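User: Modeling request: complex.
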Amino acid sequence: MANSNSQVQIQTEKEKNTGGIKVRRAIAYVVLSFVTVLCLFWFFILFINATRGDAELAKGFTVIPGGYLIKNMLGLMGRPEIPIWYGLLNSFIIAGSSAVLATYFSTMTAYAIHTYEFKAKKFMFTFILMIMMIPTQVTALGFIRMVYAMGLENNFIPLIVPAIAAPVTFFYMKQYMDSALPLSIIEAARIDGSGEFRTFNTIALPMMKPAIAVQAIFTFVSSWNNYFTPALILKTARNKTLPLLIRQLQKSDYLTQDMGQVYFMIAFSILPVIIVYVFLSKFIVQGIALGSVKG
Amino acid sequence: MKEAKKGNIVKYNKWGYIFLIPFVVVYLVFQVYPLVSTIFFSFFEYYEENLAVVGPTWNNFEHYIQIFSDGSIVKYAENTIIMWLMGFIPQILVSLLLGAWFSDTRLHLKAAGFFKAVIYLPNLIMASAFAMLFFTLFASSGPINSILVDLKILDQPFRFLENILATRTLVAFMNFIMWFGNTTILLMAGMMGIDPSLFEAAEVDGATSTQVFFRITLPLLRPILVYVAITSLVGGLQMFDVPEILTESTGDPNECAKTLIMYLNSQISVSKNYGLAGAISVVLFVLTGALSMLVFWVTNKKE
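Assistant: Request completed. Predicted assembly structure:
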């Protein structure tokens, strides 16, 4: 009797909750829709305005796209101090090479710690975890003086090669290996007579593909977006990456600025990342939580 | 037999060192050496004037005394922290709310994947491009003013970037938009890691969602909240691209948006006072180093 009574009580409690849940769900959808607008509104204006001409833009904002997209692009291409296609190419070379080096060598570093037993192993692992959060800016001064002394000013090398030592990528790879690369497989390869370097390249590396893909995207994007270090190293217009060209465009006289070109330049710089994101967003969002929170 | 096996292990294990070579060499050349020389420069008079290099000559703690006594480093640290807080407080509140909704199985939100993808998007957008966009949108002749005047909210265009509060708010708002999606996903992952039987037990006991959130979710989430707060502060101390572009490198009005890294950057590439830049770097290194140790300690406490 007491039992059924408490069951009834739970029943009514549940009904009350489902009524409450509908209200809460409605509130959640309203808030989420608002947040969505807050995130996308700026880019909506950006892409509309990139299609409009300077004279139209001066008249005020409308939601209807204009027909000036190509003209804005051609206008920018006629300005030798803002070589947008060189900027695109430079950004691609630097970000692409960084992504390849960072993922390959971070996997290798993680593999060393994961697979082998050696004296300095624990020390190395702890050391890399500790330096993970030291920002590159604090070593920038010494870095720049060294780069200039090496004669690598205006060169891509100092923007690409340091990617080989990427503690965050290393940490992600190590986490992934712990769950996806059993030592027995490496042992089996040894018995089959595979050399250590070959085992790494032909067995371990392919098994790490999902983690490599996630980290390749993140490294590419952060290098693509990087402003601080490239701004200290790249000096001539033709060697500059897109973020530097944006600053270059901002520096040119603002009053005589063709605003259509400014919007086009911004859209042009962020479009590649947006396109990749449209196709891979699910994969990327899943990837964030995996590496950052331990355990 | 046993010895042979041990010999094998030793033979293989030298590969541990071999595979570490690329990381170690690159790290020594591009991180350790620059760090050591940065610290070294901070104790020297070393600058460029009219293309002539002066120094380096030893001058003790002069640069440190200078940046603290003229109040510059304190002022720029204050700007940085104020703008970080203005962005971080709404960020953590919104992220907790959204994280709780996304991880609530009873709520069962449809299109959660879409919403997560949208709120994470701004994190991948080039910060300098985003800042340039806001610089243009919020200009006195820009579209935001034109919309506000058209809607009769304003009588005449408001000069956002000539107002201290408005400039700082814009920087903080951009940081908020860029980072709250990332924080939401981290907190959500933490919330999903909480033992579901705790929620079931609370449900049976008739706890409301609010009670569940404050009595179960929040206390169990504390380590992750601490992690998020400290890593965000370390990121906040590196704030550069957004205020740099939004204020055209000046930090104006009244240098209210000039951050520590903008100060460092101007000493390296404009004033070319390398000794002073070294001292600023060392202060930043000590600050972020201490905070990193704190994160390291918090995340490894369990073991």
